[in-house]
Amino acid sequence: xxxxxxxxxxxxxxxxxxxxxxxxxxxxxxxxxxxxxxxxxxxxxxxxxxxxxxxxxxxxxxxxxxxxxxxxxxxxxxxxxxxxxxxxxxxxxxxxxxxxxxxxxxxxxxxxxxxxxxxxxxxxxxxxxxxxxxxxxxxxxxxxxxxxxxxxxxxxxxxxxxxxxxxxxxxxxxxxxxxxxxxxxxxxxxxxxxxxxxxxxxxxxxxxxxxxxxxxxxxxxxxxxxxxxxxxxxxxxxxxxxxxxxxxxxxxxxxxxxxxxxxxxxxxxxxxxxxxxxxxxxxxxxxxxxxxxxxxxxxxxxxxxxxxxxxxxxxxxxxxxxxxxxxxxxxxxxxxxxxxxxxxxxxxxxxxxxxx
Length: 356
Description:
Structural class: mainly alpha
Strand order of the largest sheet: 1-4
Radius of gyration: 22 Å
Shape: globular
Number of helices: 16
Number of strands: 4
Largest sheet: 2 strands, antiparallel
Order of helices and strands: HHHHHHHHEEEHHHHEHHHH
Helix content: over 70%
Strand content: under 5%
Distance between the termini: 32 Å
Low-confidence stretches: none
């Protein structure tokens, strides 16, 4: 009997081209395709509620990825990301309602228009950083919120703006099962583009600006160019995500576009992992599904508690406390995010049995 061949373990890459490849192995590509196939079949085994959660994860995941490009990869703090998210939603509805631009074309055009706005507000990033930049982006949030409430020709003011559903060759994507595929296509394209961007010269320059801007400048990296570019890219992603949200809900209002949404998006990339494309999606899944899970749990507890008003009120407060507690505990015990934990799991099995 022939001896069994030993199992290979370790890292066998020998050049930088292998290091920067988008798919390290055929197995990783096969897993990605299998996952996409399972997602593509989601309308067959999920009801409308589950599909609505997946759609919400999709467009919020795109917005979170844009914020990660500017914060996680370039090291620039942004507290006004929700404002660009809202601008994209209003812009897409405006292009479709006032100028008759097809919705499927209005979505990327809204992203480009939002990128131009991001260039304007990202200009201070060329000279300031840290808390000063955070205050500047916070000012952008309030400036755009005021613009939304006053520019009735663009946003409808306090009344908001209606957003028509996506239509492809006369076929309206006006149900959760249909619109899910629209969002899935945008998610795949936007995430593949960001993953590929990090393999390019521009992507590596953005990371160099984050790690040590003085060393990057000495090596010839133009700090102003890449700081402003990161804001433009983040705004483009936020604009596309906002447009997808607007045409899904069918209505865009200024009430939901506030600083709380910006903080929520910042929490997504912190929990998922700063400087990680996959972490943006993992953090979004966590932030979207965690309140729903706790809501289901406390709804079951309310039924056990009966119809006592005091008990029901106490459980409502406990639900909010539980959400905050879970986030705090997660940041204490997993500060590098879900993406870091996933990399550790992969490294363990890759190097097994010599995982040390």
